[in-house]
Specification:
The complex is a heterodimer of chains A (355) and B (304).
Chain A: E1 4-13, E2 16-26, E3 31-35, H1 42-50, E4 57-62, E5 65-66, E6 77-80, H2 92-102, H3 107-120, H4 136-148, E7 154-158, H5 166-183, E8 186-191, H6 194-200, E9 203-208, E10 211-216, H7 218-223, H8 228-233, E11 238-247, E12 251-256, E13 259-265, E14 274-279, E15 285-286, E16 295-306, E17 310-317, E18 320-327, E19 340-345, E20 350-354
Parallel strand pairs in A: 3-8, 3-9, 6-7, 7-8, 13-20
Antiparallel strand pairs in A: 1-2, 1-4, 4-5, 9-10, 11-12, 11-14, 12-13, 14-20, 15-19, 16-17, 16-19, 17-18
Chain B: H1 2-20, H2 31-51, H3 70-77, H4 79-112, H5 116-131, H6 134-145, H7 150-157, H8 171-195, H9 199-207, H10 212-240, H11 244-250, H12 257-267, H13 271-299
Helix pairs in contact in B: 2-13, 3-4, 4-8, 4-10, 5-8, 6-11, 8-10, 8-11, 9-10, 10-13, 12-13
Classes of the chains: A alpha+beta (355), B mainly alpha (304).
Amino acid sequence: MSDIRLVNLTKSYGEGNAVSDVNLQIGEGEFFSLLGPSGCGKSTTLRMIAGFIRPTSGQILVGRDDITALPPEKRDIGIVFQNYAIFPHMNVAENIAFGLKLRKLPKAEIARRVTESLKQVGLAGYDERYQRQLSGGEQQRVALARVLVTEPRILLLDEPLSALDKGLREEMKFWIKDLQKKLRITTIYVTHDQDEALTMSDRIGVMSKSRVVQVGTPQEIYERPKTLFVTSFIGHSNVLDVRVLRAEEGSALVSLAGQELRTRNGGGLSPGAAAKLVVRPENILMGSALGPTDARLEASVISEIYQGALVRYRLKVGDQEIVAERQNQAHVERFPPGAEVTIGWDPEWSEALVA
Amino acid sequence: MSISEGRILTRKAGFSVSEAFGGFRLWWLVLPAFLFFLAFFLVPVISLLAISLNKTVPGVVTLTSNLTLDNFVRIFTRAIYYEAIIRSIVIGVVVAAVALALGYPLAFLIAKTEHPTRNTILMVLVLSAMQLDMVIRMYGLMVLMGDTGLINSALMWLGITSAPLPLMYNTFGVVVGLVQVTLPFMVLSLIGIIRAIHPSLEEAARSLGATRGEAFRKVVLPLSMPGILAGSLLVFALSISSYVVPALMGGWKVVVLPIHIYQQIAEAGRWQFGAAVAAVLFVTSLIAVFVYHRAAVFTSGGRT
């Protein structure tokens, strides 16, 4: 087990870059997710770490070793593929023994470790089965067992849940996370699914257009998105046009449809310039729920959408539309369409970003 | 989970098709093909094989009820005939092996070429080799490999050899000719199978500690076995039943079973004996199919 560092990692194809200047440091035992839409370079990054793609420039360091030029078989890095890649001509036991046989371990030792690792992934007694006799979830577990039995320094997971149906995906999410915690193995998880990244990761690196645009804990990524891309990619946000009145360290005063609001300063704002104000629907308070220090706006209700546990409001401020969500609890205030209402939010829960 | 669902769906689909066509009525669709097969393959072949059980009378083709195994006894007791059987089999095996050795890398390259234009060009090259008539291709080979052909003239002109090398009118020439004819069949049998091996299987092997060579030996090659076996069977069957290639490239000196059949029937009019040799050739092919099937079961690790 080791930490891993990517230093100025770049991969170019012809004129364009698939991965541009990626710098990441992932600590020992950490569960790190690379999150981004398809084509953002996250899979290319993973494949460079695994050794299937040679970087154009930059370095990959595991512990103190520079592995940039090593072939995949010398890296001691395990990878689980999206399609699991179970060898169809070998049974489960032979699949799991594959890496151990290559390491020339004694037969008895191999047999012992295969049995042990099948027990670990909850597939004791599956030794003789073949790939086509396994469900997607079972193949997933075999693929993990096959990698973990070789005790790699780093574990790479390439969209391992995307081929599973929804119920199983939820279950496997927690199962993988628990296993990772128990083994304390440094893990890099590639996904385009924000739920997976938010629930499983210690830290997330959001990638867009070949670059890592933000690195942080799930909470930081969700609550303090640094760019409009991160804001719109993770969860739902209201993105509102505002003008900067005053910009200070950490906070700013902006105007929205003639009304003044205090907000956090995402950085790079200058007075007089246009900016985007980002606030999530669940953080918008309405009517009597507002506190004395909250930023306030006068709005009118366009429509009320009842969703059971949630009530969603479409609101209008000036010529801009805002979506607010409220928990449908006892005694909650309801607002009919056409009603004039004061809305607002804690300034700490909104962010002004450069437009 | 998804696999079992898929199976259920397939079964349902199959059921509804046979329901719609009323099960039995679907068979009427293959009637024309069956009649053609019956009239122009089964009847002539069976009658040919049947007269092999009659005493050989030159010029007579009619089947009589006087059955005897004389023709077969003759084949298996006279060296000239049973040696031809062995020669045919050995040539078939060697041609299959050479075609595999040459064809596998080519098929691998084509299967791994993702660039659409390059892939098309490679496929056209392979297929174009099949478009010319076999006789014409053999004459082309003779121009190349004869005593005064291009290869020998060049070697002698360069002073590398003083007399022409015996490239033709021998077993070597026949093998070269047969490999040339059968190579496309081998390549086409392999391409689909190799392409179906997902690249992640090789990558998984690599990251588990296998070198490029080990990953090929332990993963790619075993998974290519269905194509290797099918291609080898096809090439073997084409080789042992080829008449034109041994006739032209062997110059009647490499006597294999089809040469005997031709000589007995076309030259001596001994239909019954020629039919017996044909029967032996046919059974040899059947045995090859049987061996193929056993090998397929064995190499698939009992996953049938």
